[in-house]
Amino acid sequence: MIFETIRLALEAIFRNAFRSFLTVLGIVIGVAAVIAMVTVGQGSTYQVTADVEKLGGNIVMVLPGQGAMQGGSLGAFDMFRLRDNDQVEQELSFVRVAAPLAQTRRRVVFGNENWNTEIVGTDNRYFDAARWELERGRLFEDGEIKAGRPVCVLGETVSSELFGAANPVGETIRINALSCDVIGLTRSKGASTFGSDQDDFVIMPLKAFQQRIAGNNDVSVMFVALDEEADVEMAKREITALMQQIRKIGPREEDDFEVMDMAQIATILSGITNVLTGLLAAVAAVSLLVGGIGIMNIMLVSVTERTREIGIRLAIGAQSSQVLMQFLVEAIVLSLIGGLIGILLGLGLGLLGAQLLSVPFIPSVATIFLAFFFSAAVGVIFGFFPARRAARLNPIDALRHE
Amino acid sequence: MADRPLIALHSICRTYGQGDAMVRALDDVSLAINAGEFVAIMGPSGSGKSTALNVIGSLDVPTSGSYLFDGVEVADLSKDQRALLRRHYLGFIFQGYNLLARTSALHNVELPLIYKGVAPKERRAAAITALERVGLGKRIHHDPSELSGGQQQRVAIARAMATRPRVILADEPTGNLDTQMSRDIMEVLVELNERDGMTIIMVTHERDMAEYAQRLVWMVDGRVESDTQMQKAA
Fold first, then answer.
1. Is a pLDDT exceeding 50 seen at residue B234?
2. Do A312 and B79 touch (CB under 8 A)?
3. How many Cβ contacts (< 8 angstroms) between chains A and B?
4. Which pTM was predicted?
5. Which of A366, A369, A352, A363 is nearest to A46 (CA)?
6. What is the mean pLDDT of residues A85-101?
7. Could you give the C-alpha distances from A96 to A100, A159, A226, A246, in angstroms and in order?
8. What one-character DSSP code corresponds to residue A93?
9. Nearest chain B Cα to A398, which residue?
10. How far apart are CA A358 and CA A360, in angstroms?
11. CA distances (Å), A304 to each of A269, A307, A386, A389, A402, in order?
C-alpha cells in the first residue's frame, strides 16, 4: 500500500509537472545557495589556516601597536628600527633569524606593462625566514644592502604581468621615479586565499626602500624564525621582555607592540572568513525562506483544485487518512526532489567556486542535512496542512469548494 | 431481507445555519427505496432534492432522524466507516462530472478500484470493461479536457459502475448536456438498472429524464410532496 501511495504521489507530481517545477524552484535555489556559500566559505577558512601554517609553527611576528591585525589602533604608535630587529636576533639565543620588513603598495612599470603590487623592503634574512627560494638570478649582495642599491627580486606574478614568459633578470623596472634592476625571481608558492596571491610582490634592500620609496627609517614588521626546538610561548615571552626594554615600557604600562605566533594569526584570519561565511550563509538562508514562501503561495493557489480533488476521492470511497497520506507523501517527495536537486546544484556551484578561488572543496555534511530536512519540513508544512484542512470537510463541502 | 427496503429514511432533518438564519433543507423526510428500483427525485430548486441525495450517499450528515442502509444505522457510522460504505456499495455521478483533471479516463475509472484494493491487472481490466460499456473503449487514454461533456459524463458513469455498487446516485447527470447526449446517458442508466440490477436514484429537474425512472418522488420546501409509481414510457 505504501508503494501504491508513493506511485500515486509521483503520478500526481508529474501530472502537474509545470506546477511542481515552480513549486520546487524556490527550494532548489535556496538549498543550492546555502550549500554553495557554506562550501566555499569553509574551503576559504581552511585555506587561510593552511596558508599561515605552511609558514611554519616556529614563526613569530612582532608588530607595532595593539590589535593591528584586527584593524585596531593605527597610526598612533612608533614603528621599529633596523637595530631593534638586529638586537632581537643577536640577544636571544633561540632566534634562528629575524628579518626586518617595511612595505607599501606601488605601481611598477616595464615598457608598456604596469602592475600594482606590494613593495617589500628587507634583506636576505627574509628569504631564509619565510622560505623563499630563487627560480632565477641571485639574492642581494652585502654592498647592495649597505648602500641601499636599487635592485630587486620579483615574485612570480609580478614577473609574468610585466615580462610574460620572458626572463626578467637583467632588466630594469620602474617604481614611480625609481629605476630598479631585477636581479632575481622567486619560485612560485601559488595562489592563496581571499584571492590574495602569495607571489605578488617586489623585494628590495631595506635601505633602498626606506630612502627611495618610504622616505623614513621605519621597520613595520619583524619576521622572526625560531630554532626548530624552541618553545614558542617561551620565545614570545622573552621577545616581549626584550622589546619592552628596547621601547622603554615600564611594568605598569601597556605594550605598544604585539608578538604573535602563526596559530594566533591563523585564528584571526579564519575568524574573518568565518564571519564572511556566516554572512553569506545568512543571505542564502533568506533566499531559502523566500523559496519556502513561494511554495506556500503555489500550494494556496492550487488549494481550490486540490480541495475538489480531495472531495472526489472521498466521494468514491477514500478514507481521510488515505487522502492525507497521499498528499503528505506527495509533498515530501516533491520537496525532497527539490532538496536533492538543490544539494547537487549547490555542491556543483561550491566546487566551481572553490576552483575559481583556488581553495579546497570542503562540503559541509551538517549543512547538507540541514538543507535536506528544511526542504522536507517546508513540504510537510505547506503541502500537508492545507490538505488536512480539506480532508476534514464533509465530502460534499470539499466537492463544492469554489 | 427481501422485504426490508435497501434504503430507509425516517424523519430526516438537515438544517444549515442557526437562529433566524437557519435553513431547513430537509424537513422531516421519510422515504423507503427497495433494491432494484430506479427512482427520480424532482422538485423546484431549493426543494432539498440534492441534499436528500447527498444524505443517502453519506456525503452529508443529517441533523436528526434515522437512515438505515440495508438495516445499518448510518448515523452511528464513523467518518471512515461511511467512506467504506461509499467504497463498497455506492457510486456517484455529478452534474459537473468531477473527474480528476490531467488524468486519463482509464485512470479516473481505476481510482475507486485502487481504494477498493483491487490488484492492478484486474483493476485495469475492470476499468476498460466499464469504459467499453459506456462506449468509450477507444478513448481510454484521453484526458477529460480532450473529451466532450457527454463523454466526460460517460467516464463518470464508468467510474461509478466500475466497483459494481448496489446503488448509483446521480445528481443532475444530464444538467449540462443537450437532449441527444442526455438520452444516451439515460439509456446507460436504464441498462445498469435493468441488466445489472443496480438501484438508481437520480435527481433531475427535467421531466423528460424523470420519465426513464419507475418511480417519481416530488419534493417541495424540504418535504416529500408526492411519491408515485410510473408506467414505463417507452
1. no
2. no
3. 64
4. 0.68
5. A363
6. 92
7. 14, 30, 5, 20
8. T
9. B59
10. 7
11. 54, 5, 10, 12, 6
CB B158 within 8 A of CB B136: yes
Chain A residues near residue B59 by CB distance under 8 angstroms: 314-315, 394-396, 399
Instruction: Write down the H helix ranges in B10-119.
Output: 49-56, 79-89, 105-116
CA distance B44 to B49: 9
CB B169 within 8 A of CB B56: yes
Question: What's the ipTM?
Answer: 0.92
- For residue B149, give the DSSP letter: H
Q: Which of A16, A316, A399 sits opposite B111 (nearest CB)?
A: A316
B60 neighbourhood in chain A, CB within 8 Å: 394-396
Across the interface, whether the CB atoms of A312 and B100 are under 8 A apart is answered yes
How many Å apart are CA A284 and CA A276, to the nearest integer?
A: 12
The verdict on A321 touching B (C-beta cutoff 8 Å) is: yes
Strand positions, DSSP E, A22-87: 59-64
Q: How far is CA A339 from the centre of its chain?
A: 25
Concatenated DSSP letters for A161-220?
A: HHHTTS--TT-EEEETTEEEEEEEEEPP--B-GGG-BTT-EEEEEHHHIIIIII-S--B-
Hey, CA dihedral for A87, A88, A92, A98, is it positive or negative?
negative
Neighbours of A4 (CB within 10 A): 13
* Cβ–Cβ < 8 Å for A292, A383: no
**CA A124, CA A6: separation in Å to the nearest integer?**
72
B86–chain A nearest CA distance, Å: 5
Let me know: does B9 contact B41? Beta carbons within 8 Å.
Answer: no
Antiparallel, parallel or unpaired: β B64-69 and B72-73: antiparallel
Q: To the nearest whole angstrom, how far is the Cα of A51 from the nearest Cα of chain B?
A: 59
Mutual angle of helices A303-315 and A320-356, in 10-degree steps: 140
Q: What are phi and psi of A314, to 5 degrees?
A: -65, -40
Instruction: Enter the C-alpha cell of residue A251.
Output: 611594568
Name the DSSP class of B75. G
* DSSP structure string for B216-228: EEEEETTEEEEEE
Closest to B43 (Cα-Cα) out of B61, B59, B31, B57: B31
Sequence-separated contacts (24+) of A144-149 with Cβ below 8 Å: A144/A205, A145/A205, A145/A206, A145/A207, A146/A207, A147/A207, A148/A205, A148/A206, A148/A207, A148/A208, A148/A210, A148/A211, A148/A212, A149/A205, A149/A208
pLDDT in tens, B121-132: 999 999 999 999
What mean pLDDT is reported for chain A? 85
